[in-house]
Design a protein that fits this description.
Distance between the termini: 44 Å
Mean pLDDT: 92
Number of helices: 2
Largest sheet: 5 strands, mixed
Shape: globular
């Protein structure tokens, strides 16, 4: 699903109109970031453009827009519009504690009024263009105090905007903010009441949602225009938080889902094609593909097994490696200790980067899996946001608001450490042309070379 949206749904006349619109507005297709981790879920823009590698809270900051409520959804971008979600608590929210820790679960949901919001921000100016309320009421289920009720990232195909609040429902809007359809969801119990986090994806006029929970896990396919269910496949899984991925390879198109029991692939009718077992007991990493290889893994910090694998197209059946195996006909390579817990790895310019949650960055050859380095980022504790690649550099944002800019390649070299003054950063950044969009607990920042933000009095 790289940058082929237009060819999937527009006629030649529509395509010409879209190009004309882009020229008139100064917005290029390369500026679009349509889903979690952008085109193809790869963490790299469709056209690799340099963004700033140095900034402060004012230097190289085009704008900063305050956002009410709490939401760890990432920004998505289409034709100069930035879309985000948040949930506003009319009462007092439990502060989000940084780092890895136990005891963050809450046994009961809050009783105060909450408002599930969708925001649209102008990419150029940071001005709020519109905001809509998708749902209001007391939360139907608890969440981990580090989670939010708006952790799922939106998805767009350029025609519509798809918003998933995992304990409330799926909502479809026009890009102007008109509600087109909605599918309400009865809340399903999650592990220890931690809440949800897997984002929706859209491909060829179908929306896919994976909801792994403690009651009835499923992968669901809906018609993007109407919201009508096309099929629903039951999954032998408990709670997971990984976004599914549509893998269009040289043999077929398939839907890949990560899970604690197994990574599974399905055809476009929901029938299972293959599976890989041996994952860690909590799965968050999103599958993605670069070139001919699919990258999958999971790395819960308390487990011994933290596999990061590169999978070849065309597999069928059980592809699970033996205890002493690191490759097979179906699996190009597997690093048994290579995957992070919360972050999703990045493959960029021939190398795979795994930003481990406690501040270690590991680098592997993307084609062979050979380890190039495993080094600690200076004071780089607590990572939840996934890294992105741009301009020959890797950007790793930690929960304290520090972005470590590392030179891409087999040598470990930290170029800069850039600090923003928010309290907590859990959302994965987005790339939009020459801008890096960074979401903190209370604000969205647009990082752009040569811009200077005037401090607020």
């Amino acid at each position: 699903m790289r940058c082929s949206f237009f060819s999937c749904w527009m006629s030649s006349i529509g395509l010409a109109a879209a190009v004309f619109m882009s020229v008139c507005t100064g917005v290029a297709a390369a500026d679009n970031w349509p889903q979690f981790r952008g085109p193809g879920a790869a963490g790299v823009a469709a056209t690799d453009t340099a963004v700033p590698d140095e900034w402060t809270s004012t230097k190289n900051v085009a704008w900063r827009t305050a956002l009410p409520g709490r939401g760890w959804s990432s920004p998505v971008v289409w034709n100069g519009q930035v879309f985000l979600t948040s949930v506003v608590n009319a009462g007092e929210d439990v502060p989000a504690q940084r780092g890895l820790y136990f005891g963050g679960e809450q046994k009961e949901a809050a009783e105060t009024e909450h408002t599930w919001k969708v925001f649209c921000v102008d990419l150029e100016t940071g001005k709020l263009l519109w905001d809509k309320t998708a749902h209001a009421g007391a939360p139907p289920a608890p969440r981990h105090k580090k989670n939010s009720y708006a952790s799922e990232t939106a998805a767009t195909d350029g025609k519509r905007l798809y918003i998933y609040f995992g304990q409330v429902g799926l909502f479809c809007y026009s890009l102007d903010g008109e509600l087109l359809w909605e599918q309400k969801l009865e809340p399903l119990k999650t592990r220890l009441g931690w809440g949800t986090g897997a984002s929706p994806i859209v491909y060829e006029d179908r929306v896919y949602v994976c909801n792994d929970n403690e009651q009835e896990s499923f992968l669901q396919c809906l018609d993007a225009a109407t919201g009508k269910e096309i099929w629903k496949t039951t999954r032998d899984e408990k709670s997971n938080w990984a976004t599914p991925f549509v893998w269009k390879n040289n043999q077929r198109t398939e839907i890949v889902t990560a899970g604690s029991k197994a990574v599974r692939s399905y055809d476009l009718q929901g029938a299972e094609l293959w599976q890989i077992g041996g994952m860690s007991s909590i799965t968050v990493c999103t599958p993605f593909a670069v070139g001919d290889l699919l990258y999958v893994g999971s790395g819960y910090v308390m487990d011994k097994n933290k596999p990061l694998c590169a999978v070849r197209p065309g597999g069928s059946g059980d592809l699970t490696l033996g205890a002493d195996e690191t490759s097979s006909e179906a699996i190009a390579w597997c690093q048994k200790q290579g995957a992070p817990y919360n972050t999703t790895p990045l493959v960029y310019q021939g190398h795979a980067y795994s930003c481990l949650d406690r501040g270690v960055l590991a680098c592997f050859d993307a084609n062979t899996g050979e380890e190039r380095y495993r080094e600690r980022l200076p004071n780089g504790r607590a990572f939840t946001a996934s890294p992105v690649g741009a301009g020959g550099k890797v950007y790793c944002l930690n929960e304290f608001g520090t972005t470590f800019v590392v030179a891409a390649g087999p040598e470990f070299k930290v170029l800069h450490e850039n600090v923003l003054d928010e309290e907590v950063f859990l959302a994965t950044p987005a790339l939009a042309g020459n801008r890096l969009l960074v979401r903190g607990e209370t604000s969205l920042y647009a990082i752009e070379e040569g811009r200077e933000l005037t401090p607020q009095p």
